[in-house]
Amino acid sequence: xxxxxxxxxxxxxxxxxxxxxxxxxxxxxxxxxxxxxxxxxxxxxxxxxxxxxxxxxxxxxxxxxxxxxxxxxxxxxxxxxxxxxxxx
Length: 88
Prior knowledge:
The protein is mainly beta. The protein has one domain (11-76). Helix content is 8%, strand content 32%. It has one helix at residues 66-72; strands at 11-13, 22-27, 32-36, 40-44, 49-53, 56-59. The protein has a six-stranded mixed sheet, with no helix packed on it. Strand 3 and strand 4 form a beta hairpin. The longest helix is centred in the last third of the chain and has 7 residues, at 66-72. The radius of gyration is 15 Å and the shape is globular.
């Protein structure tokens, strides 16, 4: 996948239509620097990208480092907190 169509601030996705998991921080000729929520910054290459269009970058999760693959399923866990059990 050519990186020339990808821009800084493009959003990262596991699949098109799902909630984003991060954003592109920098575009180099042969790699991207991306931020993934709950993981941090990482460099990825064209072989880690399934598709890119309309400001969206779809990742090939199976080609990412195994520790990141495990975390991707839980990127948004902190956003879905249960209400606290408090009594007034």
